[in-house]
Amino acid sequence: MQKTKLLRLFNALEASRKKLLDDLKKLDQPSLQFKPDPNQWSVSQVLNHLQFSERASIAYAAKKMQGGKAVKKTGIAATIRAEALSLFLRSGYKWKAPAVLAAASENLPFDEVLQRWDETRRQMKYFLENLPDDLISREIYKHPRAGRLNAMQMMQFFGDHFNHHLPQINRVKKAMKEIKS
């Protein structure tokens, strides 16, 4: 039952990604790497940030999963932290990415970011499909601000995180169109 919900969350996340990428594939490389301001990210940087965040999270969770039943179950505190994180992301409030993620947000060519993200999503799907049911509710994920969460909360974060960055992508695209006009 929980595995089914996890995979539904993954499928919804993947459908959102594919919809975004279909839209972005209409843009040329310079547009995807356009930065409206030296202190702002390009579309490629935002995408690279998203894929790197997901990749690092899945790698951590896979390592943590090896602890098996010795890994603590999440409780009400994790639920509250996860909900607070979700509300914060959905509020539109901006904050700086953790240093490790900000440093990984290179302005790479779109094709390279896409290739990395495709591989990350393959790894994520494999991880979720092979995650034992008894580990789904354990603290296998560690968010830099919300702390230790479970797999379901991790997937909910991925969805909120993706949606949090969509307005940023749209702002960059709008700024680019204004300059071109």
Please describe what this structure looks like:
This protein is mainly alpha-helical and 181 residues long. Helices cover 67% and strands 3% of the residues. It contains 7 helices and 2 strands; from the N terminus they run ααααααββα. It has a two-stranded antiparallel sheet with strand order 1-2. Helix 4 packs parallel to helix 7 (151-180). 26% of the residues are buried. The mean pLDDT is 92.
In short:
This protein is mostly helical and 181 residues long. It contains seven helices and two strands, in the order ααααααββα.
Keywords:
181 residues, mainly alpha, two-stranded antiparallel ribbon, 7 helices, elongated
Main beta sheet, described? 2 strands, antiparallel
Report low-confidence residues grouped into runs of 5 or more.
none
Global geometry = elongated
What's the N-to-C terminus distance?
Answer: 52 Å
Per DSSP E runs of 2 or more residues, the count of β-strands stands at 2
Average pLDDT over all residues:
92
Major sheet strand order = 1-2
Give the SSE order as H and E letters. Answer: HHHHHHEEH
Strand content: under 5%
Q: Given the structure, what is the number of helices?
A: 7
Percentage of residues in helical conformation: 55-70%
Structural class: mainly alpha
Computed over alpha carbons, the radius of gyration is 17 Å
